[in-house]
Amino acid sequence: MKIHKIIMAVALSFTSLGAFAQASYPERPIRMIIPFAAGGPADMVGREVAQLLSQELGQPVVVANAGGGHGVPALNQLLGAPADGYTLLMPASGNMTIPSKAMEGKDVLNLLDPVSQVTQSPHVLVVSKSIPVTSVQELIDYAKANPGKVNFGSAGVGGVAHLAMEMFKDQADVDVVHVPYRGTSKAVVDLGAGQIHALFSSMPSLKPMIDRGVVTPIGMSSASSGSETSKLPVISEAGLPNLEYTTWYGVFAKKGTPEEIIQKLNKAVLSVVENPELNKKFEPQGVEFVSSTPEELAALVRKDSAKWQKIIDEAGIQIE
């Protein structure tokens, strides 16, 4: 009986220590992994968010870049850490919703606990000056008049830009060619040089070329309130009613992270995305800062995953 009481006392003490650790979280710096190289749009957003999260949580939030491999190396870093809220992941929507060979048969929501969505933004459809096109309808008409001669660049096979091109091809009923690159930067350069004719990408990636008048923006993949993007027509309202999508970033923790920690992080993200200076800085680029409940982010992952999987299956795309 005495031994039983000792065991119970020890068990209760561990429970109390666990509860105290959760209540006092965070007690040391937090590492936030971004599955992209330093200097790109995801990194710029992530570092601003990390700095503001540091202020909200009272501990440094340190960004660690782990680019490449469809985000799998970054995911593996998170999965190799304890589920204690001290290692987080801020992936883009494509990392979470588009399948890859390395993640075949795995459900990311079985590996991760959603914390909150952070941003949403449209892709912009731009065209080269080498073709006589200034609108979505003109691009459709030009592609119909030149079957197999109009090409779309993308950052790689199976990426969001590639799948958006497949949506365009299907819904406009045109014969266009996909030209995959290893990343967006070379595709944008070749678009400006007239080597490729069209491209879906984010405004931060395209704005320098647009500002110089080298390429022509003709539409957005969803509505936007950004000072630059709001001037453009929404593609779904300009001839292709079913071509609509957004890209987004979100914060995730390892599966099994205590609910109290998830909720504390969620509350901190909510405060961050309401920061007026943060919104002012990224608003011209069409990046809208938003928050969500963990359940809403999980639902978004499932919805977008189903949409992209359908396009992949119908187009017969072999995911790398």
TrEMBL record:
Secretion signal span: 1-21
Question: Which InterPro entries does the UniProt entry name for this protein?
Answer: BUG, Bug_dom1
- Entry keywords, A to Z: Signal
User: What family name appears in the similarity comment?
Assistant: Belongs to the UPF0065 (bug) family.
**By its UniProt entry, which SUPFAM superfamilies does this protein fall under?**
Periplasmic binding protein-like II
This chain's protein is named Tripartite tricarboxylate transporter substrate binding protein
| Gene3D superfamilies reported for this sequence | Bordetella uptake gene, domain 1, Periplasmic binding protein-like II
